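User: Hey, my collaborator sent me this sequence without any context and asked if I could get a structure. I don't really work with proteins. Can you help?
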Amino acid sequence: MSETKEIREITEAELPAALKDHWKNAKASVERNNHGYAIKFLQAILKEEPGFLNARKLVRQAEIIQSGATPGAAKKGLFGTSGGGGSSFIRQAKKDSFGALVAIEKELENDPFNCGINEAFYEIALSMNLLDTAAFALETAKTGSPANTKVAHKLAQFYVNREMHLDASRVYREIVKQDPGDGEAVRGEKDCSAKASMQQNRMSESSSFQDLVKTDEAAELEKASRTALTKEQLEERAGELAAQYEADPNNLAVVKQLAQTYEQLEDWNTCHSFYSWAFELSNGDVALRAKANEIKDKAADQHIKDLEASAAADPNNQELQSQLQEIQQSRVGERLEECQERVKQNPTDPKMRFDLGQALYDAGEYSDAIPHLQQATRNPH
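Assistant: No problem. I've predicted the 3D structure and written it out in structure-token form, which is a compact way to encode the shape of the chain:
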């Protein structure tokens, strides 16, 4: 491998043509149970392309079969882990990270589950920004030493840092199976399960919006946004609509236009009052009720943001700091009550169900949050 070549993770499609025959022969050797030959081909590939994770996974599979290594039966070293010598590879990597990876592969050939070496492998891969490779190293160490929950915690935290909450939840769950009394793992599983559900729901919402923008209505909204009025024009528009409203306060079309105009002005309190009145005039239009609820939340959030800005500008004002803390705490409770009431009114609405799950999560009620988040994810829209 050229010393100046960038080391990065690559896919099979990115594998250089000169190595494709090696890759083909390696896979064929595994299929024929010629694992020794497969290991030689795969190690040759990894010397040239250390970021080819598929080859690293396949070579580990071949090594496990060839060596007869058994998950969970790793030998214990001086520090309660399988094997040792990991620190020497880390020292080597400070001078030659590529050479350290080659040396690690040679050591793992006969002891693929060696926990100490796999941990060193993780640290080196992480320093080289080979993130999926780093995760694979710790996954291998965990598989070989499932009782070593220290390694599992390191892996879970790695996934949390990458916002891979579903994987983190899985690892925490495996820790709890090994040690039901591990409070950090119990909390971690609940926390990451909730975050994973929220992630999935956001992805569903994003996908649904992409579908929405293809509709004629969304096209009109997009057109309107491109020709947005200035603040002065919006204020003038609000004045014109206000005159029409005074003449007929029960004109639903005018009330809705006023609400939309104040929404563009980000005058959330006034906007909420008009959306609420529009809902009353509409004989129970659920879309208007949902919009009124959304704007009410924005008004409350804006009030807190304004207080936070004031508190940040005057950090020595204890009265202001206490007021901010009190409002923040009360808002969590208010938000939870509002979301619970909204779900009672419309229990089949997945968006309201998701909002309730998030409110429970924000209130620290993780166990109660998860079912609502999962239900919202199963029925995204």
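In plain terms: The CA atoms of residues 252 and 281 lie 6 Å apart. You can pass these tokens on to your collaborator as they are.
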